[in-house]
Recover the amino acids of this structure.
């Protein structure tokens, strides 16, 4: 298993296909346009996860508010056929070895231990106002 950015057109097309697969499978997933994928590829912010062929991808989003380059881990998606084989974890470990900038993750609480196992530290707690409570309180 390997990761690669600055993808060839055929690899980028496979990533776009996986993005389409993700949007059908995951209710909150919104598709990314081909133009945006081309821009992410040009910037080096899309990584293909390769096992003979592209089996998943990692998408980063650059945050330009900081002096030091900082990116957020936006998505990790593994094709259904390759899940449960630690491709996501191996790919993230490989990514962390290759980047030389700050990487942040905004993640659901249920994934905290997973990301801590990769060396991330929880620094902030984000509190959300659930819409359901509004009905109870009003």
């Amino acid at each position: 298993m390997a990761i690669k950015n600055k993808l060839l057109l055929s690899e980028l097309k496979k990533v776009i296909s996986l993005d389409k697969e993700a949007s059908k499978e995951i209710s909150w997933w919104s598709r990314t346009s081909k133009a945006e994928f081309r821009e992410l590829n040009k910037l080096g912010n899309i990584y293909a996860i390769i096992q003979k062929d592209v089996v998943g991808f990692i998408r980063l989003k650059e945050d330009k508010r900081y002096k030091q380059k900082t990116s957020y881990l936006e998505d990790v998606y593994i094709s259904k056929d390759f899940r449960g084989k630690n491709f996501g974890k191996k790919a993230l470990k490989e990514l962390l070895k290759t980047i030389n900038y700050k990487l942040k993750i905004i993640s659901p609480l249920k994934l905290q231990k997973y990301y801590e196992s990769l060396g991330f530290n929880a620094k902030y707690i984000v509190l959300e106002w659930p819409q359901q409570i509004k009905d109870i309180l009003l």
